[in-house]
């Protein structure tokens, strides 16, 4: 991977939010309106990065939109965590990468929320009985044509996971305080057809969290932790 790019505008001090405040802010700031851009190729999800926005415009012209949903499962421990997975090495898309539970939205799914909950059950055996959905985060576009709608949810501790090794090699939790600390948000760049675009990475121990997963975590930080 590329080396991190020094930030010429250092972040302000991280906001310390306990579990109660985090969930209260999330409920106040998020909802369940489905954005039209999830299905409409003419509506490009804004990324905040001109290079990425241009890439998404090009991708939308060249390949069909692939609507997807993921679950940002925030486990309500005294020190909250986020549940992540490591995708199986044999998969065609994003093999071996760190991801949220989730996948493409099927025609039989009642909503993106339903798709996220179904995928979490299928991939890691997370029972819906432990999940309290809070709302959708901003729509996130990728260079593979995916339009991903994340559902933020409070997850009650005490669940037992059953890993589906055809899709996932591992599931693990990362402290919310680590992921929401901008000091840990490394900014990298890469080239797309002669254009420079930027992406985030958040290395945690031996786990390299980057790309769409890190990008959605950054959006979570900006929506919930920014005043």
UniProtKB/TrEMBL annotation:
Which Gene3D superfamilies does this one have? Nucleoside Triphosphate Pyrophosphohydrolase
**Source organism's superkingdom?**
Bacteria
Pfam families noted in UniProt? NUDIX
Give the residue range of the signal peptide.
none
Domain Nudix hydrolase residues, every copy: 65-200
* Molecular function (Gene Ontology), one example: coenzyme A diphosphatase activity
- Coiled-coil spans are none
Cofactor dependence: Mn(2+); Mg(2+)
What keywords appear on the UniProt entry?
Answer: Hydrolase, Magnesium, Manganese, Metal-binding
NCBIfam families membership: PRK10707.1
The protein's name in its UniProt record: NUDIX domain-containing protein
């Amino acid at each position: 991977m590329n080396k991190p790019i020094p930030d010429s505008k250092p972040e302000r001090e991280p906001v310390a939010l306990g579990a109660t405040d985090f969930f209260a802010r999330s409920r106040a700031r998020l909802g369940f309106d489905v954005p039209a851009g999830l299905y409409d190729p003419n509506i490009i999800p804004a990324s905040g990065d001109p290079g990425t926005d241009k890439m998404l415009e090009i991708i939308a012209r060249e390949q069909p939109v692939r609507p997807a949903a993921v679950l940002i499962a925030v486990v309500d421990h005294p020190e909250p965590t986020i549940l992540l997975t490591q995708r199986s090495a044999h998969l065609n898309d994003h093999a071996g990468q760190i991801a949220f539970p989730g996948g493409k939205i099927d025609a039989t799914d009642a909503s993106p929320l339903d798709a996220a909950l179904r995928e979490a059950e299928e991939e890691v055996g997370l029972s819906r009985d432990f999940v309290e959905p809070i709302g959708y985060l901003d729509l996130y576009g990728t260079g593979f044509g995916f339009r991903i709608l994340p559902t933020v949810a409070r997850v009650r501790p005490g669940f037992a996971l059953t890993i589906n090794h055809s899709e996932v090699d591992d599931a693990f939790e990362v402290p919310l305080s680590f992921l929401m600390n901008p000091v840990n948000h490394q900014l990298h760049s890469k080239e797309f057809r002669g254009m420079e675009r930027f992406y985030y990475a958040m290395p945690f121990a031996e786990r390299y969290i980057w790309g769409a997963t890190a990008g959605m975590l950054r959006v979570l930080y900006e929506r919930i932790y920014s005043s």
